[in-house]
Amino acid sequence: MEQNEKSSLLKLMSDQLSRSVRMYLDNCARCGACVEACHAYASTGEARYTAVGRAQNIRRLYENYHTITGKAAPWLSEAVELDELWMDKVYETAFTCTGCRRCMVFCPFGIDTQQIQTIAKSLLIGADLEPKPLTVRAKDSIAKGVNSEATRAKFAKQMDQLRQEVVERWTAEAGKDVIPLDVQGANVLYVSMAEAHSILPAARIMNAAGESWSLSYYEAVNFGAFVGNRSMTEQICQRIIHEAETLKVKEMAICECGTAFRVMKHVMGPFDFNVITLVQLLERYIKQGRIKLDKSKVRGRITYHDPCQIARNGGVYEAPRTCLRAVTDDFVELQPNRCLNWCCGGGGGLVIAAEPEFRMKTSKIKAEQLKASGADIVATACEMCYAQLNELVDEYELDMKVEFVSNLVAQALVD
Amino acid sequence: MFGRIWYFVMVPMVYLAFVWCVLGIAFKTMQVLRAPRLPRTLRIFPESKSPDDRPIGGWAAAVWDTFAMPTLWRFNPTLWFFLVVFHIGIVILIISHLDLLPQVNIVSASSPHMIGNGTVGAAVTVALLYLLFRRFRGTVREVSVLSDYLLLFLLLCTVVSGDIISWGNSWSDEGFVMTKQDLGKYLESLITFSFTDPRKFLSGSHYPVIGFHVLCANLFLMVLPFSKLVHTCFALPMNKLRRG
C-alpha cells in the first residue's frame, strides 16, 4: 500500500473516532460474553465471526495508531500496521456482520459493534473496496432525487398502472384515488419500496381505514446506510424529509424496511412530524376499529420474525404481534424472540453484498429456530429479512411460507 | 542498594503511581470528551418503548446494567459469578486497606485480621484463577491478546502477595513479625507524606513480600488508564449509551 493511500485511509479512520467509538475501542475486556450472541458464530463456530473477533480487526489498527501502549509495545495488544492484507480483515469486519446489534445485548458494557463497523466501512470506501452492488444502488437512488421532476413523472406513470391493479384486485376501491400522490396536509406520507408488493397491501389497508395519506415519490430503502456512507445516507433521506415537510404531513410511515425505519427515525430524526413503521400504523387501525379483519381468511400457524432494526434497534415489538393476532388464532412465538431474536443473516445489506453460500452457512441457527416453531407462515416486517428468510426456507427445505405482516392484514381485510 | 530500591518502590513510586493513574484517567477522559459526539442515539430496546416514546430506563438502567450485569447472569452465569466475586472482592479489599489506618476502625484495631480474615483475598484469587485459565480455552483464547494474560497475571501477583501477608497475620498466634498495626503505620506515613523509610515500621525478613505487593499495586495503578482496565471509569457511560 502506498504511503499516500495509507495516510488518507488513516485520516478516514481518525475521522470516525467519535466519543462512543473511542470508548468502545479502549474498553473491551475481551471477556467473550458476546461470542454466543452472533448468529454467524452460532452457526459456524468460527471465532472470526464473533463480535469481539470482528472488532479486534479494527481495534488492533486503533492500538497501533491511536494509543500510547500500542505505539510503545505493539506486541502487547497485537497492534498491526494498515496494509493490503489487513484490508481483507477490515472487509471481514464490515461485511460478515449484519449490524443486528444482538451482541450489544450480551456485552456487559454494551459495546456497539455496528459503530466499530463504521470505521471498517469507511476504510473500504476510501480504498474503493466496498461492495459495488451497494454503491451502484445508492448512487441510483441519489440520482432519482437529483433529477426530481423526471423521477416524479416516471413514478406517477407507474402508479397509474398500479392503480388499475388495485381496482382489479379489490373492486370496492373503484372510483377512488387508490394511490394518492402529492396530498397536501395528509395525515400520513407513506414511504414504500419501489416494488408493487410494498405499495398494494398498504394502499388497500390505508384506504379501508379511511386514512388521509399520500404516497412518497421516493423509495424508502437506504443503500447509503448499507455501504456505510454517511453523506449518501443523508442525501437519500433528505429528499423524503423535504417531501414530508413540503406536504406538511403529520406522520411519515415507513414501509416494512428495518434500516429505512431506523435510519429515518433514530439517525436522521427527530422531526416536526412523527416517524413510524407501517406495522405501527396497522396496529393503530386495528385498535381503533378502523379496519375489520376476518381470521378465517388466513390459514395456518403463524410465527413472527422480529427484524433487528425495527425491534431491538427500533423498539417496535408489540405492534406486529397485535396485527398477527388479529388475523389468526394460531400464533406462535419464535424462541428466542423480541430483543433476543436471532438475526435472519441478511441485514446490513448482506442480502446484496454477501455470497448466498455465506449467508446460508451463517444462518443455520435461524433455520433451526424457524423449524422448531412448527409454523406454516413466518411473518416479518422488513424487506431484507423477507428476502433472506425466503432463501433460507428454500435452502433448508423448511415447510413454511414467508409473508409480510401488511400482506397478511390485507388478505384478512373484510370489504 | 536493595534498601534504596525497596524505599523507592514503597514510598516515591507509590506517589508516582497514584499521580500517573489520576493524570492518565484525566487524559483518557479528555480524549473521549474532545472526540465528536454522535448526533444520534445508540440505544437498543430491551423491551417495548413507553407509549409516549420516552426512553425507558436511562441512568437507573445503566447503573443496573453496569453493576449487576444482568445479561451475563442470564447467558453465562459461571462467568457472572466469578466476575461478581472479583469486583466485589476488590472493593472490599480497598476498604480493608483503608481500615489499616488507625483512624478507621471497621475491624478492631487490636485484631490481627483484616476484613474477612483473609477469605476475601482467597475468593478474589480463585476468581482471578478462573478468569485467567478460561483464557487458555476455546473461543476466548482465540480472541485474547498477550496483554489480557499479563494484566490478569499482574492482578494475581498483587492479590496472592496480599494473601500471603494477610494469612501470615491470621494463621499463626504471633502472625508476621510485621503486624497489621505496623502496616497501618506505614500507610499512615504515606498519607501524611512523611517520606519515612518503611523499614522503621516494618521489620523482619518478610519485608520483600510487602515490597512486592506494593510494587504490583503500583504497576496496576500505572497501567490502569492505558489498558482495558480503564473500563473502571467508562463502563457506566457506555451502558448509558446503550440505554439511551
Record the SSE blueprint.
The complex is a heterodimer of chains A (415) and B (244).
Chain A: H1 3-15, H2 19-27, H3 39-44, H4 51-66, H5 68-72, H6 74-77, H7 84-95, H8 102-106, H9 113-126, H10 132-146, H11 148-169, E1 188-191, H12 196-208, E2 213-215, H13 223-227, H14 230-247, E3 251-254, H15 258-268, E4 274-277, H16 278-287, E5 302-305, H17 318-327, E6 331-333, H18 350-353, H19 356-361, H20 364-373, E7 377-380, H21 383-395, E8 401-404, H22 405-412
Parallel strand pairs in A: 1-2, 1-3, 3-4, 5-6, 5-7, 7-8
Helix pairs in contact in A: 1-9, 4-7, 4-9, 7-9, 10-14, 12-22, 16-17, 17-22
Chain B: H1 2-10, H2 12-34, H3 59-68, H4 70-75, H5 77-99, H6 119-133, H7 138-143, H8 146-171, H9 180-191, H10 207-223, H11 231-243
Can you put this structure into words, describing what you see?
The complex is a heterodimer of chains A (415) and B (244). Chain A has 415 residues and is α/β, with parallel strands linked by helices. Chain A has three domains: 3-129, Fumarate Reductase Iron-sulfur Protein, Chain B, domain 2 (Orthogonal Bundle), CATH 1.10.1060; 134-287, Rossmann fold (3-Layer(aba) Sandwich), CATH 3.40.50; 295-412, Rossmann fold, CATH 3.40.50. Chain A contains 22 helices and eight strands. Chain A has helices at residues 3-15, 19-27, 39-44, 51-66, 68-72, 74-77, 84-95, 102-106, 113-126, 132-146, 148-169, 196-208, 223-227, 230-247, 258-268, 278-287, 318-327, 350-353, 356-361, 364-373, 383-395, 405-412; strands at residues 188-191, 213-215, 251-254, 274-277, 302-305, 331-333, 377-380, 401-404. In chain A, the strands form two sheets. In chain A, strands 2-1-3-4 form a four-stranded parallel sheet. Chain A has a four-stranded parallel sheet with strand order 6-5-7-8, sandwiched between helices. In chain A, helix 17 links the parallel strand 5 and strand 6. In chain A, helix 1 (3-15) packs antiparallel against helix 9, helix 7 crosses helix 9 and helix 17 (318-327) runs parallel beside helix 22. The longest helix of chain A has 22 residues, at 148-169. The model of chain A has no long low-confidence stretch (mean pLDDT 94). By secondary structure, chain B is an all-alpha fold. Chain B has a single domain (2-30, 58-243), classed as Fumarate Reductase Cytochrome B subunit, CATH 1.20.950.20. Chain B is 66% helix and 0% strand. In chain B, helix 8 (146-171) runs antiparallel to helix 10 (207-223). The longest helix of chain B is centred in the middle third of the chain and has 26 residues, at 146-171.
